[in-house]
Each structure stands twice: as C-alpha cells, then as structure tokens.
Design brief:
This protein is an alpha+beta fold. It has ten helices and eight strands. Helices cover 46% and strands 16% of the residues.
C-alpha cells in the first residue's frame, strides 16, 4: 500500500500519465490477491484489532540520527548541484525520504495516535523500506551529478557510513537456539493478534480438537477417509438424526456434500466451527474449500490482465523488429 501510493505520486509528479495504464495492469495482475483481501475484510476482525502499540516500535536516537545525517548531507549536496538535476524528481525523493524517516521516528508520535494508521501499517519502522528506496535514488543521483575528486569523496563518505551501520548492527545481534520440538509443537497462529479470525468466532480455540469430526447431537460412528487442510472425507453411520461438527472454523468457500447432495453449513456457535445435519443411516460426507464467485472473478481479472500484458508486449516487439 505504501509503495503503490508512492509510485502513483511519482508518476503524477513527473506528469508521466502514459505509465498509469501499466500501473493499472500491474494492479490487475495482482487482483487474485488484492480484491479478495479488500472484499473479505468484512469477514474478519482485522479492522477492529490493533496488532501492536506503534509507539513502542519507533526508531530511536542513534539509528534516527544516522538516517537524518544521510538525508541532510544528501539534501545539501543536491541543492549545490541543482543545475544538473531534474528539480521535480529531486524534490520528490527528498520529500519522500524526509517524510518516511520522520514517520519511523518519535517526531511522528502524534501521527501514530491515529488508530487507523496503526491498524494498517502496524509498525512504524516499516516506513524505513520507503526511505531505503528514496535514499538509493538520492545517492545514485549524487554520483551521477559529480565527477572526479568529488565522486571519490562521496564514495569514501558513504562507504564509512555503510561500514559503521553494518558494524553497529552486527554487534547487536543475539542468537536464540531452541530445540526442534519448540517449533514442531508450536500451536500459535501465523498472525500476530489473531487479526484474521472470522467475526462470528466468539470463543477463540485454545487447543486443537481431539477429533476432526464428532457427534454434537445424536450418536453413531465416524470412519475418516482422508483429511487435509482443504478437504474432509468420512463415512458416517448415524443411529438417529444427528449433527456432526467438522471442528474447522467456517470461512466462505467451504461446502459440504452428504451423499453427493449439497448440505447447509451451520456455524452460529461460540467457536464458529462448521456443523451439518445428517439423517439416520450410513452416509458419505465430503467437505471442500473452494473458490467463491468473488475470488473466481478476481482470478479472471488477474488472468485477463496477464493476457493483455502479453499481447501488448508481443505487439511492441513486432513493431520494433
């Protein structure tokens, strides 16, 4: 999100509007991920969850001072060489560098009290990724603008800064050596604060269920015929009309077939897990996680954009041969 805004501003700043179709194609190609991520935010608690305390992750003192020094030196040298630089690009990257460094340091303390920024970006130091790109352009432009001894002096200056930063970072590295079992038995989720938990889960699971399938109403036997993260198959013998819990939190895309017939999934329970009704008798149950219409449309947008890009590239190649 940060770089998309910067790319768009850069093209606008330069007046390079002919590149916006290429930017749109890039967004289209990534549509298989971007569109569901935006559309399905309403299904999870992301918007109501603050993942971190941003003010605890600001870049402090020594590192901030070094970044500021690099920026000040670069800015002064660029101003001295302004006759050889493209003013619009120079100003743009200086502003981007200054703003990104400021947002990562205590100078932006008030800005980080805006809750939505904390939810989207989560950690202030992520803005340093932007300063890396901006400072690379600035330094490369400086080398392009000078020659002879001035270029050698710049090389020495920035080499010293690079070595100092590398040395100070390396000196602060600490190692944690955990046995293999620490990782293979880790039950934590892959996100920081369960921010992708569906909104219908009232009581978060504290441990893995003992069985993937079990009777919550009725009685009988369950014979598993294969279980993966996206598919559950079983043979169920119910002695009476029953309700089976699949012990997987429901999310749009899951579908269940009982004897080949689509069956309604109930998930209005505190854990948000899938429940299905099964009549008395012996039945085959098959559950699969599939594409929703929205995700399928997003896939088609990506494929269409990729085909469009290939056609345009082929036409351009033929025009130049």
């Amino acid at each position: 999100l940060m770089f998309l805004g910067i790319f768009s501003l850069f093209l606008f700043w330069r007046g390079a509007f002919e590149f916006f179709p290429a930017l749109a194609l890039g967004l289209g190609i990534s549509g298989f991920f971007l569109l569901p991520a935006l559309f399905e935010r309403r299904f999870v608690i992301f918007d109501s969850t603050v993942v971190s305390a941003p003010l605890s992750y600001l870049v402090m003192q020594k590192d901030a001072a070094l970044l500021g020094f690099v920026g000040i030196v670069s800015a002064l040298l660029l101003l001295l060489k302004k006759d050889k630089m493209k003013r619009a690009e120079k100003n743009f990257f200086l502003v981007v560098f200054g703003a990104s460094v400021m947002l990562a340091t205590p100078l932006a303390t008030r800005v980080w009290t805006w809750e939505m920024l904390g939810k989207l970006v989560q950690f202030p130091y992520r803005f340093l990724a932007v300063s890396v790109v901006a400072s690379s352009w600035i330094i490369a432009s400086l080398f392009h603008a000078v020659s002879g001894r001035s270029r050698s002096g710049l090389l020495v200056l920035f080499s010293i800064l690079w070595i100092f930063t590398l040395w100070s970072t390396h000196a602060s590295i600490t190692y944690t050596n955990q046995p293999e079992g620490y990782y293979t038995t880790n039950e934590a989720t892959t996100n920081v604060a369960d921010e992708y938990m569906p909104v219908w889960v009232v009581e978060k699971p504290q441990k893995r269920p003992g069985q993937k399938l079990e009777f919550v109403v009725g009685r009988g036997t369950i014979e598993s015929e294969g279980t993966t993260s996206q598919r559950i198959e079983a043979k169920i013998t119910a002695l009476e009309e029953s309700v089976i819990a699949l012990n997987t939190v429901y999310y749009p895309g899951w579908g269940v077939l009982v004897d080949g017939t689509p069956t309604k999934i109930e998930y209005e329970n505190r854990q948000g897990v899938m429940h299905v009704n099964v009549p008395a008798g012996t039945h085959t149950l098959r559950a699969e996680f599939r594409e929703t219409p929205a995700r399928l449309l997003s896939d088609l947008v990506s494929v269409g954009s990729l085909i469009t890009l290939a056609v345009l590239a082929f036409r351009d190649r033929r025009r130049h041969t």
